[in-house]
Write a structure and sequence with these properties.
Elements lengths: L5 H13 L4 H26 L6 E6 L6 H9 L4 E8 L3 H9 L6 E6 L4 H5 L4 E4 L15 H18 L4 E4 L4 H15 L7 E3 L2 H15 L10 E3 L6 E3 L12 H12 L1 H9 L7 H19 L4 E8 L7 E9 L2 E5 L7 H26 L1
Parallel strand pairs: 1-2, 1-4, 2-3, 4-5, 5-6
Antiparallel strand pairs: 7-8, 9-10, 10-11
This protein binds 1,4-dihydronicotinamide adenine dinucleotide and oxaloacetate ion (OAA).
Length: 366
């Protein structure tokens, strides 16, 4: 008889003591130890395959400034059973590090293009923060040149390996990368507009924080809808629809609108060349991903703002409140009543958005 594994060697040691005794006792004990070993192995195998109930989530760009804290927070999310971390650099290190956390999700790392397909196969949710961030003096559109191609390649992988996954797209410029992703999925014949969501949660998170400061409230009790897109004037906070209901002076309205629209630039300048928002973005991305997973699970009443395919305006994409469900963005809410200030803001937002959306579409169609 061959004894290879550690468990088998233990059986061999015990057997050696038992064999000279009663053959019947030996047989039953040997049988019991074998059963115990196979159940231990089954449990380990089950965990290694992500057998715990929950969703399978991939992060593409997982070793980056957003990717790392995002991966850590997703590793802590009880709705996640398997977490795939993909990047073109450092994925093994981040994976080894996070895999020591005693939380339920099984973490696996994937490095470089040849491992992209394995990273994506079987995923329920794919979160994409891959790409370069801004430096002071740059607009988000300045990132298009590099990030457009990155998003195209990653979305081709999604179309091939997990066409039914929900996609949370973070890479900037979101106003163009979401249309790029849509065109890639259309080309592959896998496009379902409900499953493609541009992440604008950080705008809402900032709006809640800044409005709470002005009102002297706890930001957790404040909810500000932010519509339009994710860049400059396309970020349109609807201060007339803040919950709890409140009112602002014209000066407060100006201050808050400008601060929310320029929140990203405020961080880029403070970081002085070392990148853009990463920690608040990881927080926002996890807030949004968790909402998507709760929607997938079938929870009722999950509503978040997101940049999605939309008929709310004449533009093909627009950020508004959406209801998240088992199939993604199942309902897209209208803008609701706007005041004069917001109506003017909406026209400015639409004018800029139209060009950014078209730029993304043309990038794939050309
Ligand atoms: N939607 C939003 O609200 C926000 C979006 N962003 C955007 O998120 C993106 C990432 O920002 P950071 O994490 O700060 O940048 P980062 O440079 O720290 O990390 C980006 C990661 O992407 C990886 N990467 C590059 N090419 C890749 C590829 N082809 N496949 C997989 N991974 C690839 C890099 O190796 C790096 O680890 C930027 O485009 C940034 O503008 C940032 C903040 C907020
Ligand atoms: O400003 C940037 O470049 C990053 C970003 O999108 C944000 O912080 O909102």
């Amino acid at each position: 008889m061959e004894f290879s594994s550690e468990a088998n060697q233990r059986i061999a040691r015990i057997s050696a003591h038992l064999q000279p005794l009663n053959p019947k006792v030996f047989f039953y004990l040997f049988f019991f130890l074998k059963m115990e070993e196979s159940s231990v192995l089954r449990r380990a195998d089950c965990r290694a395959k992500g057998g715990a109930p929950g969703f399978k989530v991939a992060i593409l760009g997982a070793a980056g400034g957003i990717g790392q804290p995002l991966a850590m927070l997703m590793k802590m999310n009880p709705l996640v059973s398997v977490l795939h971390l993909y990047d073109v650099v450092n994925a093994p290190g981040v994976t080894a590090d996070l895999s020591h956390m005693d939380t339920g999700a099984v973490v696996r790392g994937f490095l470089g293009q040849p491992q992209l397909e394995n990273a994506l196969t079987g995923m329920d949710l794919v979160i994409i923060p891959a790409g370069v961030p801004r430096k002071p003096g740059m607009t988000r559109d300045d990132l298009f040149k590099i990030n457009a191609g990155i998003v195209r390649t990653l979305c081709e992988g999604v179309a091939k390996c997990c066409p039914n996954a929900i996609v949370n797209l973070i890479s900037n410029p979101v106003n163009s990368t979401v249309p790029i992703a849509a065109e890639v999925f259309k080309k592959a014949g896998t496009y379902d507009p409900k499953r493609l969501l541009g992440v604008t949660t950080l705008d809402v998170v900032r709006a809640n924080t800044f409005v709470a400061e002005v009102l002297g409230l706890d930001p957790r009790d404040v909810n500000v809808p932010v519509v339009g897109g994710h860049s400059g004037v396309t970020i349109l906070p609807l201060l007339s629809q803040v919950k709890p209901p409140c009112s602002f002076t014209p000066e407060e309205t100006d201050y808050l609108t400008n601060r929310i629209q320029n929140g990203g630039t405020e961080v880029v300048e403070a970081k002085a060349g070392a990148g853009s928002a990463t920690l608040s973005m990881a927080y926002a991305a996890v807030k949004f991903a968790d909402a998507c997973l709760r929607g997938l699970r079938g929870d009722a009443g999950i509503v978040e703002c997101a940049f999605v395919a939309s008929e709310v305006t004449e533009l093909p994409f627009f950020a508004t409140k959406v209801r998240l469900g088992r199939t993604g963005a199942e309902e897209i809410y209208p803008l609701g009543p706007l005041n004069e200030y917001e109506r003017m803001g909406l026209e400015k937002a639409k004018a800029e958005l139209a060009g950014s959306i078209q730029k993304g579409i043309t990038f794939i169609k050309k």
